Amino acid sequence: GGTWYWNRYPGLRCDVESYIYLPFLEETGYMPTERYVRGSEIFAYCQLLGRHFGLYDRALFQTAITGMRWDDDAARWVVTTDRGDTFRARFVTTQSGIFSRPQFPGIAGIEHFKGKMFHSARWDYAYTGGNGDGGLDRLADKRVGLIGTGATALQVVPELARDAAHLTIFQRTPTAVGVRDNGPTDPAWFASLPPGWQREREITFNQIANGEKVDCPIDDGWSRFFNRLIAAVEALPEDQRTAEAIGAAQEAADFAYNEIVRARVDDEVSDPEKAALLKAWYRTLCKRPGFSDDYLPACNRDNVDIVDVSGGVDRISEDAVIVNGRSYPVDCLIFCTGFELGTTWAHQAGYDVIGRDGRRLSEKWDQGLVTYHGLFSHGFPNIFFMGLTQTGTTVNVPHMLREQIDHLTYIVRRCLDEGLTRVEATREAEQGWQQQIAAVNEARRPFQEACTPGYFNAEGKAEDRRSAIGSGMYFPSTAFFRMWEEWRAAGRFEGLDVS
Q: Are 385 and 92 in contact (CB under 8 A)?
């Protein structure tokens, strides 16, 4: 993990409202200062959670796992670390994530650049000055180039535009920028919330994101967009709600929403050529939608240029970025180019897992992830793989993680209470789940392949989706979480071999 540890770039905030993004607010009694809090506040809240739940006494910091091997005779995992430790554990859960290794673009000549160069997830404040709240005073005489215009850029650009002498944005694909509507938290409103409010709020938000018509107290860019899709389906006569008709209605609603977003660009960016470059042309959910009240005004500044690199960057020289034969001199290059995707789980985690009969997880998953409910994998007892793949996922990721934690703690508690030593997915259950995942992916394939290149379709490489999010991200989460609730209520460990 480490999202809110490593990411400390200026302007960093959550893009889901903090009242549901920050977990356990009722338990800790903490009130977020804003609707969308800064990264520094989220990091501090993570530390508060550690203290509140006594996690610091149970954590080993500055320690990386180097290997994990199943001891079948003892029914224990043998875990080794880079500190020379060897631990034995009855149960193991992994949370290495898929957005953990910064990715740099393979641009010709990048190794010859003599200026400053860094990734947004490894921000160099010694060079820029300032901190996560801005104030990048050491850029006052610098020409800054920024490559990558996704969610991170929406937050970084306003800070760079304000403080750098000049900012050149090298843009492959524009991001749709909806209204954020951030503001301070009203203490009286927060104090008036009834017990159980946060759980109810996160559940109804997720229901809307999954196309369910419910009363939700959240009025934000996410809910407004999803409610448009819901209303489009509701407007169809019930006897005409075929898959084709629903898809067409949602596409029309999506287009109408994007017309509003594109019109906003014209309202806030005075240069017609610059405005044209900033207008997203693709379906909203081809990329994670963006929301900002500062990005477009920043792009409208005279010291900010946008260069279209939809055809790619030619090369990088010692002091410039070359695009279509033209040189753009820069003193500093910042890469908002995301994280590795499509590499193996073992590469992402930094270690391999050896299960029963000496089989390596890297071998089993060589051609793609194979799990039962995203948590279990046959041949690897007592290990739970938390993450975004082959499971029910949510716009609000902490909600998904909480559901996974509730599920695995139920299973572990049952094992401890009943004296069970092993829990493992059966081969049949795993195969059945793969068939369901394949059906979901096949239904979404036309949409994904029509999207602009991005992590939803493995950068447009349809032939290689081994570890792409498309391998299982889109299982409808509300239905998935209800299935888990029914699974636990039945109490039969369906799909698992326990002993």
A: no
CATH code of the domain occupying 110-180+249-335: 3.50.50.60
Q: 4: how many CB neighbours lie within 10 A of its CB?
A: 18
Q: What is the pLDDT of residue 84?
A: 96
Residue range 5-21, pLDDT digits in tens: 889 999 999 999 999 99
d(CA 168, CA 305): 5
Q: Using 50, 70 and 90 to split pLDDT, how confident is the model at 460?
A: low
| Helix, strand, coil percent content, the chain, rounded in steps of 5 | 40, 15, 40
pLDDT confidence of 63, banded at 50, 70, 90? very high
For residue 87, pLDDT over 90 is answered with: yes
Question: What does the longest C-alpha to C-alpha distance in the chain come to?
Answer: 71
Q: How many CA atoms lie within 13 A of 470 on its CB side?
A: 29
* Confidence (pLDDT) at 367: 81
CATH pick for 60-101+341-498 out of 3.30.70.1710, 3.40.630.30, 3.90.550.10, 3.50.50.60: 3.50.50.60
SS3 at position 69 = strand
d(CA 176, CA 284): 7
Percentage of residues of the chain with pLDDT beyond 90: 81
CA 210, 213, 219: angle at the middle one, nearest 5?
Answer: 85
At residue 53, what is the residue type? F
Spatial separation of the C-alpha atoms in residues 461 and 463, rounded to whole Å: 5
φ, ψ for residue 49, nearest 5 deg: -60, -40
Please provide the size of the chain in residues. Answer: 499
3-state secondary structure of 235: coil
CB atoms within 10 A of CB 429: 18
Is the pLDDT assigned to residue 89 strictly greater than 90? yes
How high does pLDDT run on average in the chain?
92
Distance between CA atoms of 311 and 108, rounded to whole angstroms? 14
pLDDT-wise least confident of 124-128, 180-184, 448-452? 448-452
By C-alpha distance, which of 61, 55, 17, 375 is closest to 205? Answer: 17
Under a CB-based contact definition with an 8 Å cutoff, are residues 152 and 287 in contact? Answer: no
Residue 148, CB-side half-sphere exposure with 13 Å CA sphere: 24
CB 384 within 8 A of CB 91: yes
Phi, psi of 353 (to 5 degrees): -120, 130
pLDDT digits (tens, 9 = 90+) for 103-117: 889 999 999 999 999
Of 209, 474, 203, 159, nearest in space to 336 by CA: 159
What is the domain partition of the chain in residue ranges?
60-101+341-498, 110-180+249-335
What DSSP assignment string belongs to 220-233?
A: SHHHHHHHHHHHHH
Q: Is 44 within 8 Å of 35 (Cβ atoms)?
A: no
